[in-house]
Amino acid sequence: MHGEPGETLAGRYRILGLIGRGGMGRVWRAYDAELDREVAVKELRLSDEIDDAERREWYARAAREARAAARLHHPGIVSLHDRVIGDDGRPWLVMELVAGRSLDDVLRTDGPLPVRRVADIGRQMLDALAAAHAKGIVHRDVKPANVLLDGDRVVLTDFGIAALEGDATLTKSGVQLGTPAYMAPEQVRGHAATPRSDLWALGATLYAAVEGRPPFQGSTHGAVFVAIATEDPPPPTRAGPLTDVLTGLLSKDPDARPTPESVRDLLIPQAAPPYGGRPPASPEATLPAPGPPPEPAPVRTAVGLRRILRPRSRPPTRRPVRTAVDL
């Protein structure tokens, strides 16, 4: 199967049209004939320069990562429904089809977003990453193209799949390691990605959302890598109260980056309602206004209580007195 409209995968998923493409695959909109619903289907495509042994290793990793991603259940993470094998042995991943546009598409067409909207996006992304990290899964490719905006809902895609892509080294022939502008400095240096690497990428994504451009740019991938490893990002001009959050997340030293809890505490007050803004009213403020005092209950005396508690009874009938003559 080549992944073309009209083709059917695994006798069940009929390809409808292309949604997007990346360095290692394409995502298609498809129709699930068994459950009568539309889904997203991702095909994994590897470079022809990879030999058979490497290809089998990548496919095995895809299987492991798919099983890990399938264990993630969170409203901010796209759901993985199925994994099937094509006629040529390539794995295909069947995922939830999320309506709406990617953050990357929004920034390209609409420009930078307001601070409060960016803070809300960051809060939801942070919650999704925390859920994945708790399961031992590092995303490794957090970027605007992997953030879907479905109304007020923010959804991260490519969990597990991106981890597969990120395992390659920079010198691996024919393999693109994520997206250069959103790679943490330690990834650029060839070190393993960690949850703190995802936090750096979160900072780079929020920087791009509020400033309209990524924090590091260059004419070539190599120039971007050098900038990430050696330079500080230009101070943001539109971030306002988010400036400290972005600066902390984009620290070169992974240990110097703030914790997810502290980042969340900084994002919530800046987020658009209902997730942020003014704090909720205190419980005292929601109590009803006091009314007039109740009238005092009547005081009962001991005599009164005896009268209430003593049951009424008929007076006893006097028995006749018998005399000795009667007996």
Q: How is this fold's topology laid out?
A:
Layout (H helix, E strand, L loop, with lengths): L7 E2 L3 E10 L2 E8 L4 E8 L7 H19 L9 E6 L5 E6 L4 E2 H8 L4 H20 L12 E4 L2 E4 L4 H6 L18 H4 L6 H17 L9 H10 L12 H7 L10 H8 L34 H8 L18
Antiparallel strand pairs: 1-2, 2-3, 3-4, 4-6, 5-6, 7-8, 8-9
Average residue pLDDT: 81
CATH class of the largest domain: Mainly Alpha
CATH homologous superfamily descriptor of the largest domain:
Transferase(Phosphotransferase) domain 1
What portion of the residues fall into strands of 2 or more residues? 15-25%
The helix tally amounts to: 10
How many individual domains?
2
Q: Output the radius of gyration.
A: 34 Å
The CATH architecture of the largest domain comes to Orthogonal Bundle
Distance between the termini: 124 Å
Main sheet properties: 6 strands, antiparallel
Q: Classify the oligomer.
A: single chain
What is the H/E string? EEEEHEEEHHEEHHHHHHH
Q: Unreliable stretches, pLDDT < 50, 5 or more residues?
A: 164-177, 278-290, 301-313, 321-327
| Order of the strands making up the biggest sheet | 1-2-3-4-6-5
Shape: globular
Instruction: Provide the CATH topology of the largest domain.
Output: Transferase(Phosphotransferase), domain 1
Biased composition (Basic residues): 307-321
Binding site for ATP: 42
GO molecular function: protein serine/threonine kinase activity
Domain Protein kinase: 13-268
What tags apply to this protein structure?
2 domains; disordered C terminus; single chain; three-stranded antiparallel beta sheet; six-stranded antiparallel beta sheet; 33% helix; Transferase(Phosphotransferase), domain 1; globular; 327 residues; Phosphorylase Kinase, domain 1; alpha+beta; 9 strands
